[in-house]
Design goal:
By secondary structure, the chain is of the alpha+beta class. The chain has 3 domains: 163 residues; 144 residues; 77 residues, Alpha-Beta Complex (Aldehyde Oxidoreductase, domain 3). 63% of the residues lie in helices and 8% in strands. The strands form 2 sheets. The protein has a 5-stranded mixed beta sheet with strand order 1-5-3-8-7, covered by helices on one side. Helix 3 runs antiparallel to helix 5. It starts with a helix and ends with a helix.
Length: 425
């Protein structure tokens, strides 16, 4: 259940219109509250808070505020679309998700829509022209909302200007990566140190019936299902995989439970049109790598951005030191009931460095910084198998630089730096 709730929260965060729509509804409710509060016995407001003496003036004031609010809301929407277009062209379309999840953009647009809806509802609640009354308290609140919108507009311009900065975007993705490292790894090893050694025993195939990216899967639910039936389930699909109808998503033993296992898998999986970070540790890594690879393309040729990405990846590796990846098996009453595929440390390092090394093979500064980042991770990582994976990427970077760097001095610097890491480690 917790897995499904987190996946739903992840989906809600990707929905840009949710917050503006809720704030628009809040504007209608706030106007109704202001009208009902304006009881006949309420005392007169101070003269400084009276903005209209008659119904005509009140309607004109509300019309001006509503018209201005919806006009600026359109401007905010246009600015957001322009920022999205710039980000898509320079840093990759998959990073649009980070702008859509930006709460500042949502609340800025939503505040103007709230003000617009509030003014319209307040006008309607004033009554017919012959019986209308001036809602002085409601008008005061409308002017207050207008002033708040003015301040929000100034803040929004600064927010968007800083938000499209590549360092800001990289930092935002790094925060998501660090949160995923904290959420999807363990403080202590799995019970009994159980990890998947070799392949699980074969079983009857369980095939999917839907198409989409696997955003999340409730392994605990599947483990409980298998334990209740004295079965063993091998889950072949992992978050981030693209599934299609008839794809083999699992294997089950005994074989006569294949149909029931398919139904259980369908209820435990959440699919979507794009991957998500709910359970996929490599998701944020791929986003950062995409920024670096685009920066190293001939059309952009910006090695400094690639170096900034490597710095963030190094921080993630250092954060993983001493933490443990989820076990490849789940137990119920000390019996293995579920095998699952997950992210390995070797796979995570490959996702971090392979594409950047290939794209930056001609840039000595990028490869040297990659080796330095790996050296920083080696300084805090004590697991021998993990250290060997890191050293493998040092060797790969050295080989790539020796064949790709045209500058002899750059090759010597790379060789000196890589040799120092390999010798001391």
């Amino acid at each position: 259940m917790r897995t499904r709730l987190y996946a739903i929260m992840e989906w809600v965060g990707d929905v840009f219109w949710a917050v503006p729509a809720l704030l628009s509804l809040a504007g209608v409710l706030l106007a109704e509250l202001a009208l009902r509060t304006e009881a006949p016995g309420i005392g007169p407001l101070p003269p400084a808070l009276v903005f209209a003496d008659d119904v005509s003036g009140a309607r004109n004031l509300l019309g001006i505020i509503a018209g201005s609010a919806i006009t600026v809301a359109s401007t905010i929407f246009s600015i957001t679309i322009a920022a999205l277009s710039l980000t898509s062209g320079q840093m990759g379309p998959r990073l649009l998700r980070n702008f859509l999840r930006d709460t500042g953009n949502k609340w800025a647009l939503g505040l103007f829509l709230l003000t617009f809806a509030y003014c319209l509802e307040l006008q309607r609640g004033m009554g017919a022209p012959d019986t209308a009354t001036v809602p002085h308290l409601g008008l005061t609140l409308a002017v207050g909302l207008a002033l708040l919108c003015t301040a929000t507009l100034a803040w929004f311009v600064q927010h968007v200007a800083s938000g499209i900065n590549v360092e800001t975007v990289i930092g935002f993705v790094q925060q998501e990566l660090m949160a995923a490292c904290e959420r999807l790894t363990l403080d202590e090893p799995a019970p009994g140190g159980l990890q998947l050694a070799g392949l699980p025993p074969p079983g009857a195939p369980v095939r999917g019936a839907a198409t989409g990216y696997l955003r999340a899967i409730d392994h605990d639910l599947l483990a409980d299902w298998a334990a209740e039936r004295d079965a063993t389930l091998s889950v072949l699909a992992r978050p981030g995989d693209f599934l299609h109808p008839a794809a083999r998503i699992a294997e089950v033993r005994p074989s006569h439970l294949a149909a029931d296992a398919a139904a259980a898998m369908q209820s435990a999986m959440i699919l979507g049109p794009r991957p998500a970070a709910a359970q996929d540790l490599e998701f944020a890594v791929r986003q950062l790598v995409e920024v670096a690879v685009r920066a190293l393309s001939p059309g952009i040729n910006d090695p400094f951005t690639a170096i900034a990405v490597l710095d963030r990846l190094g921080a993630a590796l250092c954060a993983l030191a001493g933490r443990h990846l989820p076990p490849a098996v789940l137990l119920r009453q000390d019996v293995v009931v579920l095998y699952r595929r997950g992210t390995s440390y070797a796979g995570l390092c490959d996702a971090m460095f392979h594409m950047i090394r290939q794209a930056g093979a001609a840039h000595a500064a990028v490869l040297i910084r990659m080796i330095e980042v790996i050296d920083e991770a080696l300084d805090v990582e004590t697991d021998p198998s993990r250290r060997e994976h890191l050293l493998r990427h040092v060797r790969l970077a050295l080989v790539a630089g020796q064949s790709g760097i045209g500058d002899a001095a750059g090759r010597r610097d790379l060789d000196r730096r890589a040799t120092a890491v390999l010798v001391t480690s």
